[in-house]
Write a structure and sequence with these properties.
Elements lengths: L2 E6 L10 E5 L4 E5 L5 H9 L23 H13 L3
Antiparallel strand pairs: 1-2, 2-3
Length: 85
């Protein structure tokens, strides 16, 4: 795996560190964030997208990151596009 560090929550402090990486080998964005509380997990699990059942599959999860990290997500997406991912 070839992870490229994009950035960390600018207000991270000592309470965790939501982070964004780009994995150019797997062609994926990698996000570190906070685990959802039971209410959020249930709400996300109740959503059924067209063509998909409701629920979060056992091999997936929901991750929360602060909206202030949008610039880092844009940077990661832009880097992926520049690399032709």
């Amino acid at each position: 795996m070839a992870l490229r560090f994009i950035g960390i929550d600018p207000d991270t402090g000592q309470q965790g560190s939501p982070t964004v990486w780009l994995d150019d080998e797997a062609r994926e964005l990698v996000l570190q964030g906070w685990k959802p509380d039971a209410r959020l997990a249930a709400e996300c699990g109740a959503f059924a997208a067209p063509g998909h059942g409701a629920g979060i599959p056992a091999h997936e999860t929901v991750v929360r990151i602060p909206a202030r990290m949008v610039p880092l997500l844009r940077e990661a997406c832009d880097a992926a596009e520049r690399m032709g991912l």
